[in-house]
Amino acid sequence: MKMLPGVGVFGTGSSARVLVPLLRAEGFTVEALWGKTEEEAKQLAEEMNITFYTSRTDDVLLHQDVDLVCINIPPPLTRQISVKALGIGKNVVCEKAATSVDAFRMVTASRYYPQLMSLVGNVLRFLPAFVRMKQLIAEHYVGAVMICDARVYSGSLLSPNYGWICDELMGGGGLHTMGTYIVDLLTHLTGQKAEKMLMGGGVCSTVTLNFNMPGAFVHEVMVVGSAGRLVARGADLYGQKNSATQEELLLRDSLAVGTGLPEQGPQDVPLLYLKGMVYMVQALRQSFQGQGDRRTWDHTPVSMAASFEDGLYMQSVVDAIKRSSRSGEWEAVEVLTEEPDANQNLCEALQRNNL
Questions:
Q1: Tell me: the pLDDT tens digits for 243-288?
Q2: 212/155 Cα distance (integer angstroms)
Q3: Which of 180, 198, 279, 344 could cysteine-pair with 126, CB 3.0–4.6 Å?
Q4: Structural fold of domain 7-123+263-311
Q5: CATH number of the domain at 128-251, please?
């Protein structure tokens, strides 16, 4: 019987607490767990019944039974671990990096090892509503795309204790944590990239992020074209042609979640993203199953996933948004093609702090 790869999980937060049971439900074996401290790793390992745990990165990466590494840790640490994992010959699924420089280094590593999986875990891409929306846009359901509008409303992302999420230089803040994935999703759906804080092809996009809205989590993505519109409200997809008098339900996501998941995990992860994680793990299983070697994989089941190049692009758009906010001008999106001088980055950081 051909085996799925053993998994090494980096992280002990909400995402890791959800990911471990989802991996097991699809037949993966979680062989190792990494935590920032030995105590954190031990606590979750005992809770999740994971035999091997550590606070040493190499202990997971060099584990003989780990062939797939899932990285769900603060952004400042993502680049270091993902690049090292690829260099050792492990497949990688990770969260976004903290900076464009880190993202560029991850892209460079992925290009050195193109046979290895190197994916950014934007789970929104795996949701059936967005898979179907992309298909309908390609089939000209909305005609020529003219407007994209996205709204995300949520309660505060901050915790009582100061952490990385409070610092934009560490990849914190709502723009980094959720805004980057919305940017990536809109480009994935339309095939158009942001150029000068406007999307190419004459498409205008508006993204509203509000993390001061207690109550129900709101996530809505709308694409309007010359012939109609498509709207994803949560995990359900609606559409309306210009000739129709009312919109129609095109896809309802009936996935039931909660079975086998820890009580604390799903409460900290919006249902939309939790469903996306379920579909992503299912796609990973389909990608690895039936392969002759535990490290080989089929690209087709994960063809909708974001690559490390996509991760660099979404970070570049966020950088342009920040520059535009400071200058009051329309700033161009500049994607790194070579690593910048470290001293220049330091000077620019000092200048921003002085301002």
A1: 999 999 999 998 887 655 656 556 678 889 999 999 999 999 999 9
A2: 5
A3: 279
A4: Rossmann fold (3.40.50)
A5: 3.30.360.10
